[in-house]
Amino acid sequence: MNFDKNSISRKRKELTSASTMVGNKAGVSFLRVLFLSLVALTVILICLGLGAFKGIIDNTPDISQVNIVPSGYATFIYDAEGNQIQKLTGKEANRMSVSIADIPEHMQHAIVAIEDERFYKHNGIDIRGIFRAFAIGITNGFSFTQGGSTITQQLLKNNVFTDWMEEGELDRFKRKFQEWYLALQLESYLTNQGQNAKDVILENYLNTINFGSGNYGIQAAAQGYFGKDAKDLTLSECATLAAIPQAPTKWNPKNYPENNVIRRQDVLDEMLDQGYITQAEYDEALADTEDVYARIQTQAATEPELNIYSYFIDATIEQAAADLMEEKGYTEVQAYNALYSGGLRIYTTQDQNIQRIMDEEYANPENFPNGLEFSLDWALTVDKANGEVVNYSREMMRKYYRENGDPEFDFLFNSQEEAVAAVDAYKGVVMQEGDSIRAERISFAPQPQSSMTIIDQKTGYVKGIIGGRGEKTANLALNRATDSTRQPGSTFKIVSTYGPALDYSNKTLATTYVDEPYTYQNGTPVRNWNNAYNGDTTIRYAIQQSINVVAVKCLTEITPKLGYDYLLDLGFEHLVDQEVINGQVFSDIGQPMALGGLTYGVTNLELTAAYAAIANKGLYTEPTFYTKILDKDGNIVIDKTQKTKQVFKESTAYLLTSAMQDVITSGTGTNLKLSNMTVAGKTGTTTNYTDEWFAGFTPYYTCSIWSGYDSNESLPSGTYRNYHQTIWRNVMERIHAGLEDVGFEAPASVKQATICSKSGLLAGKGCPSITEYFEAATIPTTRCTQHYVAPTATPTPTPEKDEEEDNQTKPTAAPTKTPTQAPTAAPTQAPTQAPTQAPTQAPTQAPESPDSGEG
User: Fold this and answer.
1) For 359-378, what is the HEC assignment?
2) Which helix (H) or strand (E) holds 77?
3) Of all helices (H) and strands (E), which one includes residue 20?
């Protein structure tokens, strides 16, 4: 290296030359700009970050508006005495809230020890836990499987940020910041409100989390796995349950006890290490390991595989849902969500004793005819080999069989095996090689069927209901008492014709009509059940003997429109004013309505409620299955207010009742007599014996029963046509055991009068007379004279002559004599005894049914 003077001078010149100075300045400037840019970028990023963070925080729910209480609570249904009879749960709704005071400390400590050991020390978020989770994630190749979430954060995630399962990465990042922020605020907010923040958070958390097997919350878990309340759990059971929430399927102690036992050990270890339990308690819990899982399996064995509701519960659910929509403005979805996951308390009108008796009588095969048959309900969906999806229905099956050798095919089989064989044969026809079954539905119902409803007429409360015979296999399925509309036959005469006639048209039970051959206005004959006619017939006798001609004549006179209006007031909802069906006009406002000839028919519940109005002095009360609905906190959601209407005058109701007592004592319903209670009611049979009915009441309860085939087949002769009467009598005898027979009391507006049984006028000399009840204003004022026989004049004595003259002049008229035989009409008697006038024509054949209404 040359360090002489010239070299040094030359070097100095190079360094101080203009070009060198420019280059140096440029380099310094570049570095300065780069530094400033980096500073600016950092500031910008910080500002953006702060702005973004502020935006995230600004979009965080207001802590004062945050609801950490879990949703999705089980609904409970109670009987009339307040006893729980059903629990309704939807998906993620089998939850029952309990307070922290009813959660054992062992349960509280177990969940804290295994899930958030610093719970009682942090203020909502655990910084140490967050850094630990971050470090473990880095170590595992940036796989962040541990979130460091506290119990407070998990509570917020489950009950506030409820859509976290569907969020993306950016949303997850945003939610995590909001979760931290709210966790800090929540604990501070609760403390400032004077509450124990940790107790509030832990209570709601333990009422929220999923414990597997459809059990949400600690109370449901305690009942589901051990059949006990949460407050009664042991340390061993608490540790078993605390092991579940991290992975409810994996750690499920019922389905995977071999997995749960591993995590249960971890729970007990953590509780011991953190000082929550002693060594002795630890050892005792370990010693219970085998028994605790045995208890879980024992409890599981006691639970039915399917929770099938009764017909009464089905009807309660449907009525409650309808009321929630009408009174609270809920949509249908909202109403059913509230019922299955709203934690409601529904108090029903069901009398468990009455319902039990009904169930027992319907389960007794001796009450039903021999020769049990089964009806088939079936549907099939097939994936065809060519990719097409084809649906097959029972109607398509019926069409196939009727067109291929069995024109009477009706889905009635002598056994379930026979029905399955018919299904398999049809599937063999419609399915080809390469086809596969996507879905198939098949169910059976015993036939003939029946339904029954019992109402307390004074309140309108439904006390018991039967929606069908046989095992119930589905929830909210066909309920023949509330859903099925059937032709009511002659039971309808009372409510459609005679009630309005007595109430509005000044008719009386003594009003007479000529029972004779008669036709509807369209020329169709009206037939009596016995094909006989009685001549002059009172309304009382027409009710007693169910005479069709009189009913149709009476309705024609008062007008079908009047009868129709009364029926609407009595709560019948399936009547048709005018409706076009397949191009044909239908209307129920016509003569056939007298005999129950309707477009759609009525339900058992509707008919029972209408008869209950008669039993309740003419006051119709809307039938109800429940009295009130409360929320889980005991606040009233619906206080059931039933609609009421005075449809018949009290006098009308009593007159109808009196006439219907005759149906039981000496008419078509003598098989319905009870040994321990007075009964009034009316029989009903539809054309071809498709439907058999009896609607009747006592001083306490109104009960209607229907029997028939679901498929509208005719009931065979014999016991098929009267087994419903046996069931009605058996049920009503039992539910009235021990009750006083107080009878039916006549109101002050009803008076008695002796009348001619033929004309209905006040009885005159020579009249066949009976004593009848009248509404006071309708007592006849005219006396009958048509049976009066004028006395024969007595001849004046003449002077005696010889015998020949005397013989020539002897009067030829026969002397008047007193009748030696009483008239055929019954003498004056109690009005519950029917007139005994004999029919003018004897039946040509013994009837198979006591009553057959046209329609």
Assistant:
1) HHHHHCHHHCCCCCEEEEEE
2) strand 75-78
3) helix 18-58
**How many Cβ atoms from other residues are within 10 Å of residue 381's Cβ?**
13
**pLDDT confidence of residue 382:** 94
Output phi, psi for 839, to 5 deg. -65, 150
Instruction: List residues bridging with 464 in a β-sheet.
Output: 454
Q: Which residues does 348 contact at the CB level (< 8 Å), separation at least 6? A: 77, 78, 79, 80, 85, 312, 316, 625, 626, 627
| Res 839: pLDDT | 33
Q: What is the dihedral of CA 310, 314, 320, 324, to 10 degrees?
A: 140
Residue type present at position 468: G
| Distance, CA of 602 to CA of 581 (rounded, Å) | 18
d(CA 780, CA 510): 9
Report the C-alpha gap between 647 and 620 in whole angstroms: 6
Q: Are 691 and 706 in contact, with CB atoms under 8 Å apart?
A: yes
Instruction: Answer for the pair 545, 667: CB distance below 8 angstroms, yes or no.
Output: yes
What pLDDT score does 15 carry? 52
Long-range contacts made by residues 840-846, C-beta under 8 angstroms, separation at least 24?
840/533, 840/534, 840/535, 841/532, 841/533, 841/534, 842/532, 843/530, 843/531, 843/532, 844/531, 844/532, 845/531
Selection from 454, 455, 452 nearest residue 468 by Cα: 452
Structural contact between residues 98 and 108, judged by C-beta atoms closer than 8 angstroms: no
Q: Which of 764, 801, 762, 756 is nearest to 778 (CA)?
A: 762
CA-CA distances (angstroms) from residue 412 to 417, 445, 502, 711?
A: 12, 10, 44, 8
State whether the Cα torsion 200-201-202-206 is positive or negative.
positive
Measured between its terminal Cα atoms, the distance across the chain in Å is 132
What sections of 648-783 are H helices per DSSP? 650-666, 723-735
Which DSSP string corresponds to 534-577? Answer: -EEEEHHHHHHHT-HHHHHHHHHHH-HHHHHHHHHHTT--S--S
Positive or negative CA dihedral for 71, 72, 74, 75? positive
pLDDT at position 126 is 80
The SS3 call for residue 755 is strand
Q: For residues 614 and 566, give the distance between their C-alpha atoms in angstroms, rounded to a whole number.
A: 12
Token pair belonging to 15: 């360094």
Query: Which candidate, 588, 590, 562, places its Cα nearest to that of 576?
Result: 588
pLDDT of res. 44: 65
Give the phi and the psi of residue 486 in degrees, each rounded to 5.
Answer: -130, 155
Joined together, the tokens standing for residue 244 give 């579940």
Give every CB contact of residue 541 below 8 A, 6+ residues apart in sequence. 534, 547, 834, 835, 837
CA distance 649 to 411: 47
Note the pLDDT of residue 532. 95
What is the amino acid identity at position 542? A
Long-range Cβ contacts of 382-390 (<8 Å, 24+ apart): 382/430, 382/431, 382/435, 382/436, 382/437, 382/438, 383/435, 383/436, 383/437, 383/438, 384/432, 384/434, 384/435, 385/432, 385/433, 385/434, 385/435, 389/438, 390/430
Q: Can you tell me the distance from the alpha carbon of 770 to that of 830, in angstroms, rounded to the nearest whole number?
A: 9
DSSP states of 288-353: THHHHHHHHHHHHHHS-SS-PPPHHHHHHHHHHHHHHHHHH---HHHHHHHHHHB--EEEE---HH
Q: What is the pLDDT of residue 95?
A: 86
Stretch (H or E) spanning 823: none
Ranges of residues in the chain whose predicted pLDDT is under 50: 1, 3, 52-53, 144-145, 164-165, 167, 800-852, 854-855
Distance CA 355, CA 321 (A): 23
Comparing C-alpha atoms, which of 366, 640, 658 is closest to residue 494? 658
The rounded distance, in Å, linking the Cα atoms of 703 and 672 is 12
450/454 Cα distance (integer angstroms): 14
- Helices 197-208 and 105-115: crossing angle in degrees, nearest 10, is 90
344: left (phi over 0), alpha (psi -120 to 50) or beta: beta
